User: Fold this.
Amino acid sequence: MIRAVYPGSFDPVTNGHIDIIQRGAKIYDEVIVLVAENISKIPLFTLEERLSMLRESLQHIPNVKVDSFKGLLVDYIKKIDVRIIIRGLRAVSDFEYEFQQALTNKKLYPESETVFLISDIKYTFLSSSMVKEIAKFGGCVEDLVPECVAKKLYEKFNVKR
Ligand code: PNS
Assistant:
């Protein structure tokens, strides 16, 4: 059984993330979506909110689990005995940061492998930051995030639609 993790901030999860998770779940026996608790930017959503939106959005995929971690990713995946780290690549602009992260994780845990999945073309522009900005100013995020996330975003920003 080959398991993989898909780590991220998920503040909040977008349809771009869901697409990567769905594709990862077709390749690996189990995908564990890992929400980072200690991210450098201050999140809009609490850890519990990020976990709950992911769980609700992913309930249709049986071989996906949602969990959180604190500290170094490699320490957590060593503990659960997983070596594959999935990351999505949207455009060349993502490459430098992802390259650095993958090499850092490799240095810290040489048995780990980062596997990149190229985003579907329709999500190449999509990011959690973009979605937050659109929702904040009352724009339509309905095609960009799962329904429960759109609802939460409008609630957070006190937007009536
Ligand atoms: O969704 P993001 O913000 O691009 O996710 C980045 C994340 C959370 C996967 C990355 O910052 C991370 O793994 N943080 C945990 C700390 C760590 O292990 N750092 C060393 C690798 S860069």
